[in-house]
Design brief:
By secondary structure, the protein is an alpha+beta fold. The chain has helices at residues 35-45, 51-54, 79-82, 126-135; strands at 29-33, 63-67, 85-86, 93-94. The longest helix is centred in the first third of the chain and has 11 residues, at 35-45.
Length: 143
């Protein structure tokens, strides 16, 4: 049986002040609500609630309100993201949305290439990928 190794490539969803993982246009925004604010919010839902009497230390829930774009954080783009059709101009099939994308298409062998020698913003070319694969002695199986 072949041994599988899972590699987590995810990044956290945090405010840009904490660390920057995403370009400015796609950075998440998180607004934090305190326990004191939570007690007031709970009062709107439960009009007879008396925070000082019914809640521990008079405090309610704390919440986070998160605004994300489709490119925030770790994600996978569905074919629909790129165009409303996929495959070719002759068949003109509707492009798959993420909920229609077969999960098994996203699972398979993985090669991790070290591209840390490129400057930030450099656009890697197919020749660059071929060179990296050659450097590690790997040949892609395109069957």
């Amino acid at each position: 049986m072949r041994k599988m190794k899972f590699i987590d490539l995810s990044i956290p969803i945090i405010n840009p002040e904490e660390a920057v993982f995403d370009p400015p246009l796609t950075q998440p925004k998180i607004e934090y609500s305190s326990h004191e604010e939570g007690a007031m919010q709970m009062g709107f839902l439960f009009p007879r609630l008396k925070p000082e009497r019914h809640l521990p230390d008079g405090k309610g829930w704390a919440q986070e309100f998160i605004t994300l774009g489709t490119h925030s954080g770790t994600h996978m783009d569905a074919p629909w993201h790129y165009a409303p059709i996929q495959d070719n101009e002759i068949e003109r099939k509707k492009a798959l949305t993420i909920e229609d994308f077969p999960l098994e298409w996203g699972i398979g062998p993985l090669i991790v290439l070290d591209c840390t020698n490129y400057k930030e913003g450099y656009i890697i070319t197919p020749d660059d990928v071929d060179d990296k694969l050659s450097n590690i002695g790997y040949k892609l199986n395109l069957d």
